[in-house]
Design brief:
By secondary structure, the chain is mainly α. It is about 85% helix and about 0% strand. It has 6 helices and no strands. The N and C termini lie far apart (about 40 Å).
Length: about 170
Amino acid sequence: MLRWYQRKLASRPLMTQAVTTAVLFAVGDITAQQVVEKKGIEKHEFARTGRMFLYGGAVFGPAATTWYGILQRSVVLRNKKAEMLARVAADQLLFAPTFIGIFLSSMAVMEGGSPQEKLNKSYWPALQTNYLIWPFVQMANFTLVPLQHRVLVVNLVSIGWNCYLSMINSAK
């Protein structure tokens, strides 16, 4: 399975990352609904899972893949520790705040709601929680993980994160 994934990453990196991200975003939502919210299959909101799948594959996967490539090419310093810290700072000060806003706005649009209302309600709590988790994940990611696997690492950690985002997005 890992060799197959490696071949797909080499031959079609953006598509592979997008599909992987779509699946893992959906897994995060399924986890939120079944493990945390304990809805059961009868009350599972399949449209909600579909929205997470769509956002993960069409928006976040391609954006994160492109972003990590930009960081790899653009943030290059002699001191590798300073390089990692600069990449984490860029990620957390530019990418994270932007994509939390894009996520919440996209979900609001797909749900037929108001993006502004969703942002007013959920943006700051999500961003604050982001800062408790992701800087540490990204320090390890930028230090230990090869570029082609960074989105996968983020996606695996994101099962829990997407569970949280799905719950914060769906809170009434």
